[in-house]
Shikimate kinase
Amino acid sequence: MAIVLIGPPAAGKSKIGKKLAKLLGKSFIDTDAIIVRDHGAITDIFREHGEAHFRRIERTAVIEALSQDAIIAFGGGAVLDENTQRDLEQHIVVLLDVDAESVEGRIKADGKRPLVPDIDAWKALVAARRPLYERLADRRVETANRPRDEIAQELADWVHNGGAFTE
Ligand SMILES: Nc1ncnc2c1ncn2[C@@H]1O[C@H](COP(=O)(O)OP(=O)(O)OP(=O)(O)O)[C@@H](O)[C@H]1O
Ligand SMILES: O=C(O)C1=C[C@@H](O)[C@@H](O)[C@H](O)C1
Ligand SMILES: [Mg+2]
């Protein structure tokens, strides 16, 4: 069973996932990184082939990731695929959440997400996805104004104490 981190763009899935994997002694997989490895930069894929194509290759990356006993950071929109939604029933799913005010600086800082050029785009996208994120998650963790090490440690304790397997 994998532990899968889902949630809004820039919530911290990749950074916290890496820390959590280290704490649990598991490998870390990022579906965005698989896509970049196999197809090049995400912005280029969106620009040259469009979102539908991106979602198809993202689904392939998700299948590869979920076949491993690992900590997996999903891309923000990976959960949109209905087959992926069904697959997640077999895994531990953690929603890393963040509010618009707290995420604004993070969005501005890197500017590498084609679907979220600014905070208004982020708000609209996350509002549309929020019910889905919440439905799929076994646990929700607020990441705003909290050190990433602390969040990773809290999740590692939850897994060690068996909470991940009973909720
Ligand atoms: N708890 C936090 N406090 C402050 N900054 C954070 C926190 N979590 C993440 N960040 C910063 O926000 C940015 C996005 O983090 P990260 O890449 O881990 O997000 P993500 O959820 O993987 O995003 P994406 O959906 O685009 O893959 C990074 O610059 C990171 O340093
Ligand atoms: O939220 C989204 O739809 C995305 C988030 C990123 O992780 C990347 O997967 C890509 O930029 C799309
Ligand atoms: Mg990420």
Notes: Strands lie at 3-6, 27-30, 70-73, 92-97, 139-142. The pocket of adenosine-5'-triphosphate (ligand 1) is lined by residues 9-15, 32, 73, 75-76, 106, 109-110, 113, 143, 146, 148 (CB under 6 Å).
